[in-house]
Amino acid sequence: MTVFSSLRGAGVPIGNALRAGNYMAIIQREMGSHGPRKMYITPSRWQWHKFKDMFHFYVMLGVIPLGTLVLATNIFVGPAQLAPIPEDYTPKHWEYYSHPITRFLARYVYTSYQQDYEKYLHFMFEENEKKQMRLLEKKVEAVMAERGDSQSYHYQPVLTKYHKWVREEFEKNRESRGF
Question: CA torsion sign, 147 to 153 to 154 to 155?
Answer without folding.
Answer: positive
